[in-house]
Amino acid sequence: MAKYLPTIGMEVHVELKTRSKMFCSCKNGLGQEKQPNIHICPVCTGQPGTLPVPNQQAVEFVQLAGLALNCEINLKSKFDRKNYFYPDLPKGYQISQYDQPLCGKGHIELQLMGDKEQETKIIGITRIHIEEDTGKLIHPKGADHTLVDYNRAGVPLMELVTEPDFENGEQARIFCTKLQQICRYLGISDADMEKGNMRCEVNLSLHKEGEDRLSGTKVEVKNINSFRFVEKAINYEIERQTELLDKGEKIVQETRGWDSVKNVTVSQRKKESAHDYRYFPEPDIPPMEFSKEYVDSLRIKLPELPDAKEKRFTKEYGLNQADVLVLTAENDLAEYFEQVVSELREKIESHEIESPEDKVIKLGTNYIISELRKHLIENKHVIRDIKITPENYAELVGLVADGKINSSAAQAVLKEMYRTGGDPSQIIEEKNLGQMEDAGELETVVDNVIAANAKSVDDYKAGKQNALQFLMGQVMKETKGKANPKVVMELLHKKLD
Fold first, then answer.
1. Is residue 382 located within the same domain as residue 344?
2. 3-state secondary structure string, the chain?
3. 140-178: per-residue pLDDT in tens?
4. Does residue 6 surpass a pLDDT of 90?
5. Sheet containing strand 198-208, strands side by side
């Protein structure tokens, strides 16, 4: 039985988060409007006699993406008409780009787990261009007609085409995740696949081992609306084509859709080629020219990108890779973390916090990753939604680090802070959550516990260390978890040793 190897490339569409649409002044609602056809005008609905005017910000967004993805920024670019008829395309053509896109060749690096260690996989970028989005077809349940919503028509759309460098579905999934992260760091798109802000199409073919990798028949898979489904669709298509070839059947060049309910690809239509679209230069929009100085000015606007931020966090804060990946996954979370660290350092310098810096930063990291993210997930919030200021968060971390409240009390305080945005010290006072520090007060509790648990005392004196932990637990129980563990342990040793 012949061994077949996959050749996989991707086309990714990303809706750009500009204030207005691509060629008119209509509000860009990204097609998320609750009512149909409210953000439309003669331009985006293709009325006769109207003229398109390119959105400068959309062009800049695509060029920023190109720079972030190591692409060549073309100094000359133009728009073209892509001709095809479909009801959601009001003009009967789409203004896109063909032979002179905004961005040429580039690449993105993926970090993959190999058999023994992490490996770097480079995915080539063929081009990045800009175009307008189409409208949206709505099929009412049980109806014998189709409705068209043009709110999304004319939304600026970035299209990225990769080289056929993927070897499996996992690599494609990681690529899409990384691209989403970069788009969010740049602020050009939320790239939310569930909302249609980011749409992935897969081009896949199989070839026999030893033959040219592009010798197979290419199949396109559309309608993939999650990163997980990207991986599943590729894996399914590899299996489907392999089974057909093993039977001696031919692969049909076609467009297939992903059925996420049945987890299969289904045939949709014959695959179009470039010549089917009859591309020609858009006559209503002059060609664009850019200077090297302009490109340099864009380069200055680039923020610190995920890879650079990950390396800096590892070096500057001494964090492990797993923590760094969580903190840098979203730029807003990374910024919040750094604001908290800045506040912590100020409090340490002013002796408001007595614990060492490395301990405090590690504790702050753990609380953000575990406790704060737990509240974000439960409330379906993002970091921008929270009421807790970095200063108040740093204060809470300092109180825990210095042993002024225990872990359970800290969780209760954080919950209230998340709800109200209140000051941690005030919440602790109002709810009486502060630790018992007074040795005299605690000594009375310790004496009572020792008197009530003679067997555990005897066990400890016989060398059973677990008995000491039991006694500690009893003290914590009596004080409702408020006793300072360090002080309690000192008292127990003093009285029992």
1. yes
2. CCCEEEEEEEEEEEECCCCECCCCCCECCCCCCCCCCCCCCCCCCCCCCCCCCCCHHHHHHHHHHHHHCCCCECCEECCEEEECCCCCCCCCEEEECCCCCCECCEEEEEEEECCCCEEEEEEEEEEEEEEECCCEEECCCCCCCCEEECCCCCCEEEEEEECCCECCHHHHHHHHHHHHHHHHHHCCCCCCCCCCCEEEEEEEEEEECCCCCCCCCCEEEEEECCHHHHHHHHHHHHHHHHHHHHCCCCCCCEEEEEECCCCEEEEEEECCCHHHHCCEECCCCCCEECCHHHHHHHHHHCCCCHHHHHHHHHHHHCCCHHHHHHHHCCHHHHHHHHHHHHHHHHHHHCCCCCCCHHHHHHHHHHHHHHHHHHHHHHCCCCHHHCCCCHHHHHHHHHHHHCCCCCHHHHHHHHHHHHHHCCCHHHHHHHCCCCCECCHHHHHHHHHHHHHHCHHHHHHHHCCCCHHHHHHHHHHHHHCCCCECHHHHHHHHHHHHC
3. 988 899 999 999 999 999 999 999 999 999 999 999 999
4. yes
5. 106-113, 118-132, 156-162, 4-15, 198-208, 219-224, 254-259, 264-270
Give the span between the Cα atoms of 391 and 164, in whole angstroms: 48
Residue after which a domain boundary falls, among 430, 448, 481: 430
pTM assigned to the model: 0.86
27 burial via Cβ count (<10 Å: 0-12, 13-18, 19+): middle
Query: Are residues 56 and 173 part of one domain?
Result: yes
Q: Which of 379, 400, 430 is the last residue of a domain?
A: 430
Domain shared by 28 and 177, yes or no:
yes
Q: How confident is the model at residue 255 (pLDDT cuts 50, 70, 90)?
A: very high
The residues, any chain, with a CB within 8 Å of residue 402's CB and separated by 6 or more, are 353, 354, 355
**Cα 387 from Cα 446, distance rounded (Å):** 40
Structural domains counted in the chain:
3
Q: 154 and 281 share a domain?
A: yes
Distance CA 11, CA 221 (A): 10
Kindly list the distances between the CA atom of residue 110 and the CA atoms of 103, 115, 165, 430, in Å, as whole numbers in the listed order: 20, 16, 12, 50
Q: Which domain holds residue 404?
A: 304-430
